[in-house]
Specification:
Elements (H helix, E strand, L loop, with lengths): L47 H4 L11 E19 L26 E2 L3 E3 L2 E12 L5 E16 L12 E18 L2 E21 L4 H8 L24 E22 L5 E8 L2 E12 L3 H4 L12 E12 L2 E9 L4 E10 L6 E7 L13 E7 L5 E11 L4 E10 L17 E13 L2 E12 L2 E3 L9 E17 L1
Antiparallel strand pairs: 1-2, 1-3, 1-4, 1-21, 4-5, 5-6, 6-7, 7-8, 8-9, 8-10, 9-12, 10-11, 11-14, 12-13, 13-16, 14-15, 16-17, 17-18, 18-19, 19-21, 20-21
């Protein structure tokens, strides 16, 4: 799973998981947490390197923070077919479809499919004071983007996604400067390292290049294949081919900056900016074409693939820019309240670009080259996030915290699918911080995030029509040591 808030998103960017024409949130793949529950644009802790580097200047001692936790989720999709489909074992490539070939049972709601991923999470931050007063160096390793999902291989969602494992980690360094007692500024630069693997069933009826190849001589097979192919020529057994992308890595450099203003002892304000990054995941792909239709039946007219095609794969997309503002007020020496507002430019991500390259893809007689390129429409919307964080000082050096947040959806009904189970989402969090001594504090928190149940009936691709739910829970602990 926004900007700089602990209520960030998790499976939303599972939209990234789309391999060939088919999520997400969807909108990005923001991890559910970086730092403790109280970390954010106004908080002076080592995790400020991510949330607002200006707040590093609020630390008065060298500080090390280590966080470990567990994230568990449940995503469900009940696909609702609104289009007409032919029997899976027939081979009508263009309409009209004979009535006897239509599968009257393949309509309405399919059985619900669920993914219940569980994953560890963690982060490591250090803040080091420099000889110059008010100048603080921050270092950190953390994963602000992650998505893990595992749906049934044979479920009705399989043409969108089966499973995926994506982690985008940051190795960051930054500086904060306290200009005067009321104003601090900060800047951080991050080296971005991404790892990804994913698989799905590819419907060859959705591939325009394949349709054009069949329509040309010497095959000259009239067909309706393509990204906008009608449901009547979709999801045929012979054209349902397993594909996976694996061992994919991406590298980039990005930055984030922030300002903190404290005009008096009761109020403070923050403004933060996180720059986007262009990620090109480069890895390998494996495409299973082990069917006589692809490996021998049409060899006399120029169509013959190897049973398994392997080669190079690239999945490219743009991480968005983010802007956040926050205001905090100390209601008394024991109580504090913060409000946070974020804006994310998910509209920068209109498509995913997929490229596959292998000599085994080439079919010269059909005009099919060894390289296939495709843009997958996502058409995401800009989003807003709102959160309120309250803190109360309790007895025995314990501070209690509670968080309530809301995030608007990025995925429109037209492109949502099982790879992008996005929606209006609510976040609840509760935690505590125990100051064991002036040198050591321990925090623990639990967070729960859920989208409001979403029903889609106007998808551009019938694959996306249906009901979606998403629930993500996390438990984290942080140890902060001051030297």
């Amino acid at each position: 799973m926004r900007p700089g808030g602990p209520h960030s998103r998790w499976i939303r960017a599972v939209g990234l998981l789309t391999l060939l024409p088919s999520l997400a949130e969807a909108s990005g793949l923001d991890a559910p947490c970086v730092g403790a529950l109280t970390s954010g644009p106004l908080t002076a802790d080592p995790a400020a390197l991510f949330h607002n580097p200006a707040r590093l200047s609020g630390l008065t001692r060298h500080t090390l923070s280590l966080g470990l936790g567990l994230v568990a989720g449940r995503a469900s999709v009940t696909r609702r077919r609104l289009g007409a489909y032919q029997n899976e074992d027939t081979l009508n490539f263009a309409g009209p479809i004979p009535a006897e070939d239509l599968d009257v049972s393949k309509t309405g709601s399919a059985p619900e499919v669920t993914a219940t991923p569980v994953s560890p999470t963690g982060d490591l931050f250090a803040a080091l004071l420099t000889p110059r007063r008010g100048l603080v160096l921050g270092l950190g390793v953390y994963a602000p983007y992650a998505a893990i999902v595992d749906y049934p291989d044979d479920g009705a969602q399989r043409f969108a996604i089966q499973d995926a494992n994506i982690v985008v980690a940051h190795l960051s360094g930054g500086l904060a400067l306290q200009v005067n007692p009321e104003l601090s500024v900060g800047l951080a630069v991050s080296y971005v390292q991404g790892q990804a693997s994913m698989k799905k069933r590819q419907d060859f009826g959705a591939l325009p290049d394949f349709g054009r190849g069949l329509s040309r001589p010497p095959i000259s097979q009239v067909n309706d294949f393509g990204a906008d192919a009608p449901t009547m020529v979709r999801e045929l057994n012979v054209l349902e081919r397993p594909i996976s992308i694996h061992d994919a890595t991406a590298r980039a450099v990005t930055f984030n900056a922030g300002v903190h203003v404290a005009p008096n002892r009761d109020w403070d304000f923050a403004l933060t900016y996180q720059n986007g990054a262009a990620l090109d995941f480069e890895g390998d792909f494996t495409l299973d074409l082990d069917d006589d239709f692809f490996t021998g039946d049409l060899e006399h007219v120029g169509l013959r693939y190897a049973p398994f095609v392997q080669g190079d794969a690239t999945v490219a997309f743009q991480l968005p820019k983010r802007l956040a503002v926050a205001a905090g007020r100390s209601l008394s020496p024991r109580y504090r309240l913060e409000g946070r507002l974020g804006y994310v430019r998910w509209s920068e991500l209109q498509t995913f670009r997929i490229e596959l390259e292998s000599a085994a893809l080439a079919q010269p007689r059909l005009g099919l080259p060894p390289r296939s390129s495709l843009s997958l429409p996502r058409a995401w919307n800009d989003t807003i996030s709102v959160a309120v964080l309250g803190q109360a000082q309790g007895p025995e050096s314990v501070t209690f915290a509670a968080l309530l947040g809301y995030d608007s959806p990025a995925s429109p009904d037209s492109t949502v699918d099982a790879a992008s189970p996005d929606g209006h989402r609510l976040t609840f969090g509760a935690g505590l911080i125990f100051a064991a001594s002036p040198d050591l504090s321990v925090s623990a928190d639990a967070r729960l995030q859920s989208i409001l149940p979403r029903t889609v009936t106007t998808s551009d691709y019938d694959l996306g029509n249906g009901e979606y739910t998403l629930l993500v829970a996390s438990i984290l602990a942080h140890v902060e040591v001051r030297l």
